[in-house]
Amino acid sequence: MSRPIRVLNVAEKPSVAKSVATILSGGTNFCPSRLSHSQYNRIFEFHYTIRNQPCEMLVTSVTGHLMEIDFDDRYRKWNSCDPAILYEAPVKKFVPQDKLNVKKTLQDEAKHCQWLVLWLDCDQEGENIAFEVVDVCCAVNPRLDVWRARFSALTSRDVYQAVQNLVRPNKWLADAVDVRQESDLRVGASFTRFQTQLLTNAYLINLNNSANAHQAEGDRNHVLSYGPCQFPTLGFVVERYWEIQAHEPEEFWTINCSHTAEEGTATFSWMRGHMFDYSCAVMIYEMCVEEPTATVIKVLDQQKLKNPPFPLNTVELNKRASWYFRMSSEHTMKVAEDLYQSGFISYPRTETDSFAGNTDLHAIVQEQQEHPVWGSYAQRLLDPEAGLWKNPRIGTHSDNAHPPIYPTKFSAGESRWTQDHHRLYELVVRHFLACVSQPAIGAETKIEIDIAGELFSVSGRTIIAKNYLDVYRFESWGNSTIPKYTFGQQFVPTTLTLDSGVTRPPPLLSEADLINCMDKAGIGTDATMHDHIKKLLDRLYATKDANTRFAPTKLGEALVMGYDDMGYEELWKPSQRSRMESETKEVSVGRKSKSEVLASYLQDMKAYFLDARLNQVKLKEAMDIFFERSNRSAGDDHRAVGDTVRRCGVCNDSDMVLKRRPDGNFMVGCLGFPQCRNVVWLPGSISEATVTTQVCNSCSPGPVYMIQFKFRMLEIPPGYNVNHLGCIGGCDEILRHLTEICGTGSRNPSSVPEGEDLGHLLVMPNKQAQGRVLASTAGKPDILRVTVLPRLFNPNVLSLAEEIHKMKMQEKLQYHVLHVGNPAFCAQLIPIITGEESSIHARVAISLYGKIV
């Protein structure tokens, strides 16, 4: 016999490791084990034979994902960079602090093993965790022979079959999860930082009216998270809410007819349905009243079948648990996972709704024969003479990994189970028994009658055989008897009435409706849908009432409204996410690479992000509808993050961002403030400034993003355009001149009375260096701004003063000097013009890209 090899087996959870070890060690509840570096992840040891190879088996576990993905430390702090950079910033996978002991255990054991067998859950997420384990173990023992155990239930049959049919792990499946993780990180982080920094300090976000009674007012740490799947999910809730709000009740009319005979009463429905035109409805009704005799024009007898449900997948499990028990999807999956790990049901995360042809369905039914409630039905199913058995219907969904959910072990109820454990186990069992049963059979009769040319109909049903409905108590299909009618028979209706009604809006989305919307749109996976729904409640974007119906909070509605007003449905509707999920499936089967899908998707989402940032006023306008403005941001200017213009050339560690100062003027400052005080002052005449995606081709080191400026027309010299695409890197002569001319000082609101025009007087040298006055006034302003170009020249002060004084006398102007560029010249000029030196409020400054003299 060959020498035993040492095999390290790694499961996804401690309970799964214990179940696998118990089964493979002989089925007893006792299997020798020892402690590891992590107190929750014991190591089980026993001997076993795999493919005639003697093995020393070590079975241990991780606890879910062993690694996390995040940005490099340089980009992890919110103020470290422009959120737009997060679409290209380096990311890394690493073992977090709380998992280091698990890593140490795996590496210590892997050093002395020849094989690594991965018992992670057999879905995409499990495959990704498997490769995390591989990376950690192979880092210390690259010679490990790596295998994958594929199983769908923690039963002896499944575990034995898996260990004797080991396969190689599938990198494509792991890559698909990497795509989802990295794209969610980049998109989520960029939009979360953007909308949190834009809105949290700007508004008093009071959510006391929510079910959570959360008070976020004054909370600077309140994060307005954005998720690429979370927001389309919220979009479904908001869109239904808007549909309800937009509904205008409209009155309609319908004709109802009934006929009572010995066998009972038949209530006929008008085949027109209803009419919104009252006069037309009255006219038709009067015709029927004048000729009330009804003639039977159609008698249709036919057999009707009510089919049993398709085999149970995760989406249906969540929907039905919500319908029948009002259980949330998040709680449903938690209970289902517990039942799976205890060996009572198969793996609960599956898209598949068809059983494979080689599945031993009879054996599954046999397990349930002794149950005190449905055991007798299981016995009837297995009795060929009863004729109750029918192979399950074939669905249209498959994940090619797991079968539908089915019971794997008999239980009449466990002592530790909660009521929801009992309910969910019962649902899985009854659903499976229904799947392998004959459909219910009914005899249906449809009658049509004619009254004065108007058609009415009624249907009756008699149940012939309930079949699967005998066990599936969650559905009903009742009898509805009507009198017997024959073709050509005539009778006078017992009642014939014209009734009115009012149109009603659709109801709020229930949790089952929301899951259905996500499933149809192709967003979320069977493993993540419940988590996205839970986040809507946790983030206070939506509430859920006692009937499991969802409504948006003011915050949730405002955010969706803001993006909708921008014209970007892609940010709150499912199209982009659906595309990404579809391409992720292409990665999982090897038809597309991880890199190409990521590059394409992130390119699109970055474009949406940059456009959204340019239109951020729409978000604020939407928030204005629901929340009051806050005055916090005025005192926190240096910490308020704007759009990145370039990397700081002084500290080389942080970004330079565009900011609006408390006085209303703009600047470009370093995010490293107060440690780094690098700043670029911009002209005080700027009214609007927005960082664009266009990069300057002249300035280095780059990139240096161009800024779109808008200047106040009356505060810049004639000949300059109010709109200017500029660069702060030093190459822009126009921006430099305007900074010199206009200065960077405060536009002190107290100096400019509200509602009065601001004139502009520019003093600049002529060719003879004598100086001349260029006046640009709006009407006859009460206040005139005098600017002297800060250049070295020696104009004739007296002649210049006379010219200004002449204008003063003609237009009766009150001169108020706000910005002056040449202090020596103005010291001579001002007293001559005004004659009252003490009355002048002059701010003397020369601005040369951040230097104030």
From TrEMBL:
Keywords: DNA-binding, Isomerase, Magnesium, Metal-binding, Topoisomerase, Zinc, Zinc-finger. Its EC number is 5.6.2.1. One of its GO terms (cellular component) is nucleus. It is an enzyme of class 5 (isomerase). Residues 170-609 form the Topo IA-type catalytic domain. GO terms for molecular function: DNA binding; DNA topoisomerase type I (single strand cut, ATP-independent) activity; zinc ion binding. InterPro entries: Topo_IA, Topo_IA_2, Topo_IA_AS, Topo_IA_cen, Topo_IA_cen_sub1, Topo_IA_cen_sub2, Topo_IA_cen_sub3, Topo_IA_core_domain. PROSITE patterns: TOPO_IA_1, TOPO_IA_2, TOPRIM. GO terms for biological process: DNA recombination; DNA repair; DNA topological change. Pfam families: Topoisom_bac (PF01131), Toprim (PF01751). It catalyses: ATP-independent breakage of single-stranded DNA, followed by passage and rejoining. The keyword Transcription does not apply. The keyword Metal-binding applies. Residues 6-152 form the Toprim domain. Its cofactor is Mg(2+). Belongs to the type IA topoisomerase family. Introduces a single-strand break via transesterification at a target site in duplex DNA. Releases the supercoiling and torsional tension of DNA introduced during the DNA replication and transcription by transiently cleaving and rejoining one strand of the DNA duplex. The scissile phosphodiester is attacked by the catalytic tyrosine of the enzyme, resulting in the formation of a DNA-(5'-phosphotyrosyl)-enzyme intermediate and the expulsion of a 3'-OH DNA strand. This is DNA topoisomerase. It comes from Aquilegia coerulea.
